[in-house]
Structures are given as structure tokens and as C-alpha cells.
Automatic annotation (TrEMBL):
<dbReference type="GO" id="GO:0008408">
    <property type="term" value="F:3'-5' exonuclease activity"/>
</dbReference>
<dbReference type="GO" id="GO:0003723">
    <property type="term" value="F:RNA binding"/>
</dbReference>
<feature type="compositionally biased region" description="Polar residues">
    <location>
        <begin position="1"/>
        <end position="12"/>
    </location>
</feature>
<keyword id="KW-0694">RNA-binding</keyword>
<dbReference type="InterPro" id="IPR036397">
    <property type="entry name" value="RNaseH_sf"/>
</dbReference>
<feature type="region of interest" description="Disordered">
    <location>
        <begin position="1"/>
        <end position="20"/>
    </location>
</feature>
<dbReference type="Pfam" id="PF01612">
    <property type="entry name" value="DNA_pol_A_exo1"/>
</dbReference>
<dbReference type="InterPro" id="IPR002562">
    <property type="entry name" value="3'-5'_exonuclease_dom"/>
</dbReference>
<protein>
    <recommendedName>
        <fullName>3'-5' exonuclease domain-containing protein</fullName>
    </recommendedName>
</protein>
<feature type="domain" description="3'-5' exonuclease">
    <location>
        <begin position="28"/>
        <end position="217"/>
    </location>
</feature>
<dbReference type="InterPro" id="IPR036612">
    <property type="entry name" value="KH_dom_type_1_sf"/>
</dbReference>
<dbReference type="InterPro" id="IPR012337">
    <property type="entry name" value="RNaseH-like_sf"/>
</dbReference>
<dbReference type="GO" id="GO:0006139">
    <property type="term" value="P:nucleobase-containing compound metabolic process"/>
</dbReference>
<dbReference type="InterPro" id="IPR004088">
    <property type="entry name" value="KH_dom_type_1"/>
</dbReference>
<dbReference type="Pfam" id="PF00013">
    <property type="entry name" value="KH_1"/>
</dbReference>
């Protein structure tokens, strides 16, 4: 287990009668050896299922960048897994947990984190709850319209009183430092600011998760699982069509659809499709169109989310489109 920590923070565990978070003081452990991590994390089990906050920090976080820290938020502690000091060994020790169905990883926007884990460490991130996806699903579920590019930021999510109601002004301080020095997360020893910033990115996530789960209906939960799985693999392009990845959650059967969706929810779930389109060098401008008019029309006409890879995309391609859309079943 981790040694005596020199850092502490607050984790919201429950709400008071007014809905405001009630905090608990927990230690922050800096991990350079797998033995410092909880046994129930290192050895996932159906008898000890976990929900943890998860995030990664690094330099140009993608397949070609450097993953420097993985943050894990438990109810009683936060662990900062130091990939610089602990190296590949300590990160790969987390592989069973990060790929396990028994550990739910709550994260805000998993795409680039998953890409870095896959190409740098061979880890296929699995069983995530992406709070960015969950937020959009709740908005749609409650009848609020959003544009295809209307994604909630982590700061915006924290500020929403339905989920947390916390101001996170310190995030801008770190963003300024990152713009000034992109190598910020590589420096050791970790400064107090680095420790605090890393912990702040995960300590609220389990609390937000529980508040979101109360709002999501069964259909939205299915979409959340499928879209989370697709987002984990959308930048992890390989030559075997993802056969080495866990299977996607299946579309509910006809009887299930009829009973739980046509009658109860009044809506039939749709199949989720992720397509990768390689664009010849220099031709992306034609697809985007003047001031984005062409690509926006595509998004609106087929309710598609389109993610553009470039320098962070496949190494043998100039650019690529990642098209995620819904198709009725």
C-alpha cells in the first residue's frame, strides 16, 4: 500500500438537504510502484466491483505524445500513478484494471487518453462512463436541443448545480502554464500545484457519476455504454478492425425493445456506428467547406459526430474523419 502521504484533498461523497456536496478529507498518494496501489484495483474481481474517477495528463497526449500521470480517484484516497518515475512497469501493472468490466472508470472525454494508453502501453481502455457523453444524453432525454459540436467542458460540468456546483477557476491557471510550457507535466519532483491540479481533475468524478446515474433512463444508459466504447477506440485505428477489443454492448432484442422502449419510453433505440474515412493529403478543406459549411451540413443531416484526426491521427495518413452516427434498427 502507498506510503504516508504529504498531500491531501477533499472528495465529495454525499449531498446535504440543499443538494450541496459534503466533503471528506482524503490523502493523495504519488505512486511509482504497483505495490502502492490497492489490491482490489490491481486484481479486479466480480465480488469487489469499483467505480473510480480516471484521467491522464501528459505532453501532446495521443499516440505520439508522452503520458506522464494517471489519476485514480477512490472514495478514500487519490492515487497519482507517475509514469515518469515509475516507468512503463507501473503503468502496465494497471492494465488489468483499465481493461476490466468490474471497474468502472469515470472520465470526462476519454478519446485521447485511450489513444495514448493503447499505442504507448498496449492498454485497451474499457468500461468507461464518459461524463461528457452522459451530459449530452441527459440534455437530450430532458428535451433540450444541442448542436453537433455542443460539448460540455469539464469546468462547465463542475459548475452545473445539478451535478456538482463547484467553481474551478484554478484550471485556467494550469492552462496558462501549459501554453507557456508544454513540458509542464514532465518535471519532477511534482510541485504542490501539479499534485493539486492532477487531483482536481478526478476528485469530483465519482460524485458526478452518481448524480448522473440517477437521471439516466435505461435507453440512455445503453447509449452511454455504446458511445463510451466507441469513443475509447475511435482514435485507436489498427489493421484488424478492433477484433482484439471487447465486444460492443448489443442492441437490445426485439422483445426488449417492444416492452421497455416502444411502450415505456416511446422510442426505439438506434444502432451506433463508427466509421473511419481516410482523406487524401490536402483535400480536407473541400470536406470542411467554406467556414465549415459542408461538414456542418453533414453533421446536421445525419445527426453525426465528426472528429478530425491530423497530427494526432494515424501516422501513415495525412488526415482522417471519424464519423459516429445513429442508425435506426
Amino acid at each position: 500500500m502507498a506510503s504516508s502521504p504529504s498531500h491531501q484533498t477533499h472528495i465529495p461523497l454525499s449531498s446535504d438537504p440543499d443538494g450541496k456536496p459534503i466533503d471528506s478529507v482524503v490523502p493523495i498518494h504519488i505512486v511509482t510502484n504497483a505495490s502502492q496501489l490497492p489490491a482490489e484495483f490491481l486484481e479486479p474481481s466480480s465480488e469487489r466491483q469499483l467505480v473510480i474517477g480516471f484521467d491522464c495528463e501528459g505532453v501532446d497526449l495521443c499516440r505520439h505524445g508522452s503520458l506522464c500521470i494517471m489519476q485514480l480517484a477512490f472514495p478514500d484516497a487519490i492515487y497519482l500513478v507517475d509514469a515518469i518515475q515509475g516507468g512503463e512497469t507501473v503503468v502496465k501493472a494497471c492494465k488489468p484494471a483499465l481493461e476490466s468490466s468490474y471497474i468502472t472508470k469515470v472520465i470526462h472525454d476519454c478519446k485521447r487518453d485511450s489513444e495514448a494508453l493503447y499505442f504507448q502501453f498496449g492498454i485497451k481502455l474499457h468500461n468507461v462512463v464518459d461524463t461528457q457523453i452522459a451530459y449530452s444524453l441527459i440534455e437530450e432525454q430532458e428535451g433540450r436541443k444541442r448542436s453537433p459540436d455542443d460539448y460540455i467542458s469539464f469546468v462547465g460540468l463542475l459548475a452545473d448545480p445539478r451535478y456538482c456546483g463547484i467553481s474551478y477557476q484554478e484550471k485556467e491557471e494550469v492552462r496558462v502554464l501549459l501554453r507557456q510550457d508544454p513540458q509542464f507535466w514532465t518535471y519532477r519532483p511534482l510541485t504542490e500545484l501539479m499534485v493539486r491540479a492532477a487531483a482536481d481533475d478526478v476528485r469530483f468524478l465519482p460524485y458526478i457519476y452518481h448524480n448522473m446515474m440517477k437521471k439516466l433512463n435505461q435507453q440512455s444508459l445503453w447509449y452511454l455504454a455504446v458511445r463510451g466504447a466507441l469513443y475509447c477506440r475511435c482514435f485507436c485505428i489498427n489493421e484488424n478492425d478492433y477484433v482484439d477489443w471487447p465486444p460492443l454492448p448489443p442492441v437490445p432484442g426485439v422483445r426488449f425493445i417492444y416492452v421497455d422502449y416502444l411502450i415505456v419510453e416511446g422510442d426505439v433505440p438506434e444502432e451506433e456506428i463508427l466509421s473511419i474515412l481516410d482523406v487524401p493529403p490536402g483535400k480536407m478543406g473541400r470536406i470542411i467547406g467554406r467556414r465549415g459549411s459542408s461538414i456542418l451540413a453533414i453533421k446536421e443531416s445525419c445527426n453525426a459526430e465528426i472528429l478530425i484526426g491530423g497530427a494526432k491521427g494515424p501516422p501513415d495518413k495525412d488526415e482522417s474523419l471519424h464519423v459516429h452516427c445513429d442508425v435506426g434498427v
